[in-house]
Amino acid sequence: MQDLNEMIDQHCVNYYHLQTLNVNQGDLEHRLVECGYNSPNSSGPSVAEFAKLLQNPRTRTVAIHRFISLLVLSRSDWRSSSKVSLLPSQISNFCQSIPPVESYPGSEEG
Question: In angstroms, what CA-CA distances link 79 with 40, 44, 49, 52?
Answer without folding.
Answer: 15, 21, 27, 30
